[in-house]
Amino acid sequence: MVRSLFLAILLLVSVTTTAQTKKTKKMLESIEGEWSLDDSGNITYQRILELSHLSKDEIYHRALSYFLYGHEGEPLDITQDKELGRIVVKGIYEDVHIGSFFLNSTHIHCWHIVRIDVKEGRTRILLTLTAYDKEEIDIADGELPLVTSTKINREFPINPAGLNKTMMGKAFYKAHGRAMLTFDNLSRAIREGNTSPNLENNDW
Hints:
The chain is an alpha+beta fold. It is 34% helix and 34% strand. Strand 4 (86-101) and strand 5 form a beta hairpin.
């Protein structure tokens, strides 16, 4: 009986680490073609905004203010060069996915870099997903979480041979969703400002 239970657990662990569920497969299929790899093997997205009604300075300050007002994805490391018209922000999407197995849980966080290039009446936004931090917690032993880092391109689905296909597939799908949300929120902030139109008015 004990031996049968042990074999069943081993089989369950094997399936969990090598297979992906039908639900995960459908999730990943729904975002096919929406992401691509850059030359460094990172996931990179690009969006160009045509803003003929805004000057370079206006675009620059609105983009910078978006992160200062509370970008979803702290902590933030901001590098800026106003003369060049470039802002680079490094942040982390906390808990893009939480996987659990018996008394263990894995919190997956996703590092990303946002680069904004500004010209008169135009801006380009590049968002790159670079790496995961995996925070493994064992409730039973009460020890501090074990944190490991890994490049996104080493994990499933970028690497088809990657382990934990269901967990990492869901993590990638959700990280993609967070990236799209950042794109939408940042684009809106640049187009419309970070506060209400009345507060954005320079005539005060």
